[in-house]
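Lab meeting prep.
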Amino acid sequence: MPKNKNEKINVGVIGLGKSGWGIHIVMLRKVLDRYNIVAVSDSDKKRQKEASDEFNCRTYSRVDDLIKDPDVELVIVATPSHLHTDCSIKALKAGKHVVCEKPMATCLADADKMIRTSKKTGMILAPFQNRRYTPDFLKIKKIIDSGKLGRIIMIKQAWHGFSRRWDWQTLKEFGGGTLNNTAPHAIDVLLQLFGEKDPEEVFCHLERTLTLGDADDHVKIILKAKGQPMIDLELTSACAYPNEHWLVMGTHGTLAGNGKELRWKYFDPKKLPNRKAETKPTPDRSYNSEKIPWKEQTWKAAGSTSRDPDFYNDVYKTIRNGKPLYITPESVRRQIALIQKCHEMCPV
């Protein structure tokens, strides 16, 4: 029976850990006018009780029992990465819409299987790539698209820190590693800035540094294609002197900053004098120099930088009003293909 376009969506959340409880439920609390949390699934009884006490929802220890719950319309898959495909496909086949945490899948074959199942069942598969909504990314995309920085030569992102980890995300058997679990955030937005063209050249270096598990915790990726900006991405647990998160170099200027603050300087090339290359020596034996008529601007984020409910507002409009998905599984497939290629190029 079709749902009323203003009716709330009943949600079941699989996994009440850092992502399920610390991200998805945090976001859902802000849109309870559109969503009801009616069921949760987790092996930890204390976590089940915490959810039951707050939302008066049903609790399950087994994922399959939540998926069978007739009241659940949308399933949020926030399990360890290696379970994303299995849980999502079961939910889709049971007639549920799905929001799947990143990575959508740990290999391209699984991603394709999920996409096929979504199309076959007619149910929505919404990959959770919330960084496309962050104010810094949206601002940078606007600045680049304005042409103020000229032709973009390179876009560089640094995710630097110095720390040890020993949770499940450090273990290959659970789909762990920085490339699988942190890099999808960065790769997703960088591919949006790279353009629709696929990279023609890919360099990847993976290494284990401070992790106590067997998966990577140091990642270097460079992407190149003719006519596109070079992408330089570095994620590491072994840098005690972090670089700035964003650096965008263009022929008319440069942008730098982080998720909270950005600054950029640029000039109008029409305001530089016409020049041509010369062979005669400079009068004062110096290198060429000139004064650039720089303009400088800054930006600061207002409020939250990463967990505003825009993602779930858009999913609601897709489910209830038929609006096309803002983040499609096909667009995320590019990211999964690149991650798989990096694993194949540089096994740890």
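Slide two material, second protein:
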Amino acid sequence: MKAWLLKDFGLDNLALGETAKPEPKAGELLVKVGAVSLNFRDKAIVDGFYEPHLVPKSLIPVSDASGTVVAVGEGVHRFKVGERVNSHLYSRWIDGEPGPDEPAHCFGMPLPGGLAEYMIIHQDSAVRAPDNMSDEEASTLPIAALTAWFSLVDYGQVQAGQTVLVQGTGGVSIFAVQLATALGARVIVTSSNDANLEAVKRLGAGAGINYRTNPRWEEQVLELTDGKGVDLLLDVAGGEGLNQSILATKAAGKIAQIGFLTGQTTTLNLMPLIFRQTTIRGIAVAPRSAFDRMNAFLNKHEIRPVIDQIYSFEDARKAFEHLARGAFGKVVIKVS
């Protein structure tokens, strides 16, 4: 089969080639990949700063895929040939709390990902793709939508009338705006792009703050919330900005630490954290059970993914370059 293979770190070392088409073992599905979507994790793996010591050579990258089951192994009962499925990043995290070794069973690293004509997904990990979404749309769900859902619903327990702050206008952030709005929350978005802030208001955000022109953006958040701060803040930036996130969150509020766009380390100012009694939780997507619940919610509220651009399979490297420049919503690669 044709597949993109990462043979060393750096986008120049991601090359289209051929490798053996996999055969499904007991309990496994062989999926003909229709589309994949890119996440910052995928870029970080290719660039070599996401757990580089764990990256096999050579690797089929990209975790998030949607496609059609074309063959099944012995004992498969959850799906049949012809049905459409999604991959789920943490292939063994089905329900409840995560196990200590969940990262060892992730698609796109260390397991082979979906940037190929075919991929293997275990029946227990696979999720039924929404009937009302194309493969391109469904491919955006496994990390971006599910991370936003888990942050808002399972962790944040957001209620109507509460206020949520979302950083940026990338994949997770756009889904967070859509989901939080459907939950009845007021949404504030931060971005460095005024045009994106206007666009995200059309998706339901109530206010936008440009953090470049307003570097002390947390002060504006307090003004917008009558000095209280937000109930839940989705932090995708990481780095030193976490201290501002704490100041923008209400007393006894919650921060979902999702990303590390501006850095994987931070010098944390403990006194505001202690006095504000803030809860910070690292969010690494969610179990498959949450995926199933999310899909039902997406269908009920008729939420459709926001896709910035779809690239052909042959133009996969251009898709990575687009992600590096920044995207409004998701960047997708059509495989077949």
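Talking points for slide two:
Residues 141-155 form the longest helix (15 residues).
The radius of gyration is 20 Å.
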